Amino acid sequence: VKGTWMGSTTVPCTYMPSEGFTQQTLTWSVERDYSTSTIFRRDDSGDHVLLSQFRDRVSVPKQSPGNISLLIENLEIPDSGHYTCRVIWRSTDDSLITKEVTTTVKVVKDTRPPSAAWQLPKS
Question: What fold, for 2-107?
Fold first, then answer.
């Protein structure tokens, strides 16, 4: 997934909700420079943004079952990395099922030629 600096991007993560399985925990983590940090966690107690540099910049849809994509706004260059969406479901017999998927996000500066940039209104 490519994102533009200062823009926003959605890191996709979807599943088919099925009967007998309830979503227990959802975590989004990012790996960069060989270390992994958890950004976001959704559990019985609600939604938690665990990394301060993502506070007020990330969200996960609540209203659409099966869509737990991560929206990142006001992208910064250091947001580039490998994002992992990890879901744990509990089934009716109390067993747990975990699935995860990793997406690479690359944040790039806008590369329009200077002539196009001159026509942009001054903010």
Answer: Immunoglobulin-like (2.60.40)
User: Quick one: 3 exposed, middle or buried, by C-beta within 10 A (0-12, 13-18, 19+)?
Assistant: buried
pLDDT in tens, 87-101: 999 999 999 999 999
What pTM was computed for the model?
Answer: 0.86
Q: pLDDT digit string (tens) for 62-76? A: 988 899 999 999 999
Owner of token pair 């975590």? 27
How many Å apart are CA 78 and CA 28, to the nearest integer? 16
Q: Domain residue spans in the chain?
A: 2-107
